[in-house]
Amino acid sequence: MSVHQKNKKKKSNTIIGVLILLIGISAVVLLMGYSYNQSRHYLSMFTKEKKSLAQPLYDRVMTLSDNTAYPANPDDVMDVYNAAYLLLYGDMILDEKLVDAVLKQQRKLFSTELLASNPYDTQMTELKRSLAYLTQMGVHVTAMEKKSALFEEDDRTKCSVRVTQTTSIFKQYYWLYSLKKDATDHRWKIVSWQATDENFNPMSV
After folding, report:
1. Which of 33, 71, 124, 147 is a plausible cystine mate for 76, CB 3.0–4.6 Å?
2. Where are the alpha helices (DSSP H) in 90-188?
3. What is the full per-residue pLDDT of the chain (205 aa) written as tens digits?
4. pTM metric for this prediction
């Protein structure tokens, strides 16, 4: 190989190296720009103090789809439900449109019977009334902790999940959720819930 050819090859390799470097820098800049825009986007959606908590909850809830990414088991169903509950009642949301979006996602976890007995408009009205009251009292939900699902011995398509709800004034409430596996799409759906005592025994009416 002549000296001229060697210099030409060296120059070509240098140009390729520079191009690769420029592409790498551009990718980093684009990624940083995307991250910055995403951060600003979340800031407009959630309170500044709760953004770091709200963001992963929101991402978890909004990935729920009718066709894909549906929770595989009762515990996962309740994880998504609780994430939505914290977003709605945790004093996190700034954009009121998000309340509508999160509630609609949460309702995808409901059985057909529960959807029929708990219409969207009715639930939204009650939700707004509850939020207004909690805001007036200066109280919000800080945690939703579940215990693993308990399956019925004679019917493994039904189970219950116990949830402890904690508020900002350190008061706790206890709930028992009933779930069943849908006979049509074989997905676990929430059928009902009821208030209980601290041992998860149903409260007498």
Report:
1. 71
2. 96-107, 112-117, 120-137
3. 554 555 555 555 566 555 565 555 544 444 444 333 444 445 568 878 888 889 999 999 999 876 678 999 999 999 999 999 999 999 999 888 899 999 999 999 999 999 999 999 999 999 999 999 999 999 999 999 999 999 999 999 999 999 999 999 999 999 999 999 999 989 999 999 999 999 999 887 5
4. 0.77
